[in-house]
């Protein structure tokens, strides 16, 4: 059966029962139908003084067309921990409509390790992304309106930094000119759209602790510059209050359930290739107060998601992860070893071993953050015993255990061994989380540290104007901010076709953006786009309603 068919047959429990397992009273669940609800800010505040559970990060190798199953493993591990008698919850991100209708698909897991309702999660869900899009574009409208009615802030039209957003892949909107049509419509200028998940508003919602913190961060956003190069903030436009109103409900984390009726918080959704790639701080912190084990994920490979989880989210939120699971597959190892997708079904131990270099580099990188790790091999039916053993032997040589997981096909029964080993890893202790670089390090030096230490680049290539801009931000008091790298997810380099563990390359930085409200500096590297495009044959072509009025084609 397909993922959506499995999800449709789920035996879901009322969301109040799911919340009760975590001790959330029904009056503090704001239901969206029978199977999803938001957790009230009042309840979240009431549990703030409780001790934290154990935080487990699930990350992965660089993604390949063969598929890795990071979210599936996150969901499966949460079910597995509950199956061995632990009080566990999972925390994942919400899905963006752009990839759903494009090529990547949804974000609810797969097979018998899914979060439900799958259709709702992968479409409009509880409207959080719509609220973020509306709040972002309200600010855009108010900036242009301010300029139209006299521009008392003396905004330089050439230096309006705030673009618009929409939650769809649309390359035609990357660079546009507007407003056109004459005096009554305003003053023409170059602008463009990013996808909603790249919005600073999305990042702020995922990093803010509460509504007061949210409003302050929104107000701190730099939206434009005056002719004297001084910044214009969102609070200068007086948009922060109305934006907070639009985001009031979106700030409350969403509670749903897995196929095995275990609690799952699904909240926020910044991409890891163009944003910081983690679910919301408020959801993670709430889960840690209610469960003994919390399994969360960070987008794409560990070079992006895990690095940003450690250097941005954990640093800013005061989180201290206790273990990391690195997801890999035999199929992906073969692709990294040079085998084409059509030939992955044939046994090739040599290619598996060669491709393990990509996994090995991620293992080395995770260890740099002081957190112990274990490798989860996501099983495919074409895997042979010899190929699986090759991955296990490679990991053993690096001092890390690898466990074969069959949660996609078997649910929690297929991952209980991994669940117990993760518990053992945590109970053994030894986790001593530390960020990769100190806050006081210079901005360009931070970019170089990530590029050289995590990617293994020889150099970072950036024009003088980029280095001068970074220096200007340091002089303005932003030098202590972490770096958010925007880079292809498919490779350690900026070339998506260069797999394995490459060396002898540079990282080109073509643009830097200051996200003063979110609290990081974005370095845009290589050809990565903050507004994706649709593939030649988008998934939207096969999504529709069947004769019974049920959604088909989502994956």
Describe the structure.
There is one protein chain. This protein is α/β, with parallel strands linked by helices and 555 residues long. It folds into 3 domains: 3-126 and 250-427, Rossmann fold, CATH 3.40.50.300; 129-246, Domain 2, N(10)-formyltetrahydrofolate synthetase, CATH 3.30.1510.10; 443-525, Formyltetrahydrofolate synthetase, domain 3, CATH 3.10.410.10. It has 20 helices and 25 strands. A hairpin with a 4-residue loop joins strand 22 and strand 23 (520-525). The relative contact order is 0.16.
Put the structure in a nutshell:
With 555 residues, the protein is an alpha/beta fold. Helix content is 36%, strand content 19%.
Task: Give the distance, in angstroms, between the N- and C-terminal Cα atoms.
Answer: 12 Å
Mean pLDDT: 95
Estimate the global geometry from the Cα principal axes.
Answer: globular
What Rg do the Cα atoms give? Answer: 23 Å
CATH architecture of the largest domain: 3-Layer(aba) Sandwich
Q: How is the quaternary structure best described?
A: single chain
> Residue ranges: pLDDT <50 for 5 or more in a row?
none
- Outline the biggest β-sheet: 12 strands, mixed
| CATH class label of the largest domain | Alpha Beta
Helicity, as a percent range = 25-40%
| Strand residues, percent | 15-25%
At the fourth level of CATH, the homologous superfamily of the largest domain is P-loop containing nucleotide triphosphate hydrolases
For the secondary structure, the number of strands is 25
Total separate domains: 3
The helix count comes to 20
**CATH topology value of the largest domain:** Rossmann fold
Structural class computed from helices and strand pairing: alpha/beta
């Amino acid at each position: 059966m397909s993922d959506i068919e499995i999800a449709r047959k789920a035996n879901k429990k009322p969301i109040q029962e799911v919340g009760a397992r975590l001790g959330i009273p029904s009056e503090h669940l704001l239901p969206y139908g029978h199977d999803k609800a938001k957790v009230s800010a009042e309840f979240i505040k009431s549990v703030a003084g409780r001790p934290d559970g154990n935080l487990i990060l699930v990350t992965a190798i660089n993604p390949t067309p063969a598929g890795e199953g990071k979210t599936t493993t996150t969901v499966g591990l949460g079910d597995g921990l509950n199956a061995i008698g632990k009080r566990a919850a999972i925390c994942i991100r919400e899905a963006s409509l752009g990839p759903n209708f494009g090529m990547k698909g949804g974000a609810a897991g797969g097979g018998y390790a899914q979060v439900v309702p799958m259709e709702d999660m992968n479409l409009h869900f509880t409207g959080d992304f719509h609220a973020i899009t509306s709040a972002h574009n309200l600010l855009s409208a108010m900036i242009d309106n301010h300029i139209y009615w006299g521009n008392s802030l003396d905004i330089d039209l050439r230096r309006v930094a705030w673009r618009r957003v929409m939650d769809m892949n649309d390359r035609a909107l990357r660079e546009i000119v507007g407003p056109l049509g004459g005096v009554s419509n305003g003053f023409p200028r170059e602008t463009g759209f990013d996808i909603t998940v790249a919005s600073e508003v999305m990042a702020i919602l995922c990093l803010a602790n509460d509504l007061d913190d949210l409003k302050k961060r929104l107000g701190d956003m730099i939206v434009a510059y005056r002719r004297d190069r001084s910044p214009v903030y969102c609070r200068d436009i007086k948009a922060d209050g109305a934006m907070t109103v639009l985001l009031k409900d979106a700030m409350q984390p969403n509670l749903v359930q897995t196929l095995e009726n275990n609690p799952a918080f699904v909240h926020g959704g910044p991409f890891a290739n163009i944003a910081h790639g983690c679910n919301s701080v408020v959801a993670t912190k709430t889960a840690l107060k209610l469960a003994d084990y919390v399994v969360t994920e960070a987008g794409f490979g560990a070079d992006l998601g895990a690095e940003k989880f450690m250097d941005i989210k954990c640093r800013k939120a005061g989180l201290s992860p206790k273990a990391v699971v690195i997801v890999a597959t035999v199929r992906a190892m073969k692709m990294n070893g040079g085998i084409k997708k059509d030939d992955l079904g044939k046994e090739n131990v040599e290619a598996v071993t060669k491709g393990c270099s990509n996994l090995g580099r991620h293992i080395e990188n995770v260890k740099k953050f002081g957190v112990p790790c274990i490798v989860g091999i996501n099983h495919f039916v074409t895997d042979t015993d010899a190929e699986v053993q090759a991955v296990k032997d490679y990991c053993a040589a690096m001092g890390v255990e690898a466990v074969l997981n069959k949660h996609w096909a078997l649910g929690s029964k297929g991952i209980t061994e991994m669940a117990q080993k993760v518990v053992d890893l945590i109970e053994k202790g030894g986790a001593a989380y530390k960020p990769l670089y100190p806050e006081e390090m210079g901005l360009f030096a931070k970019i170089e540290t990530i590029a050289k230490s995590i990617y293994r680049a020889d150099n970072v290539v950036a024009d003088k104007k980029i280095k001068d801009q970074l220096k200007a931000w340091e002089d303005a008091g932003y030098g202590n901010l972490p770096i958010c790298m925007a880079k292809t997810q498919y490779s350690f380099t900026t070339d998506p076709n260069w797999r394995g563990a490459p060396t002898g390359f540079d990282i080109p930085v073509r643009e830097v953006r200051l996200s003063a409200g979110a609290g990081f500096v974005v370095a845009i590297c290589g050809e990565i786009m903050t507004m994706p495009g649709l593939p030649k044959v988008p998934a939207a072509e096969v999504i529709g309603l069947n004769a019974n009025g049920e959604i088909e084609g989502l994956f």
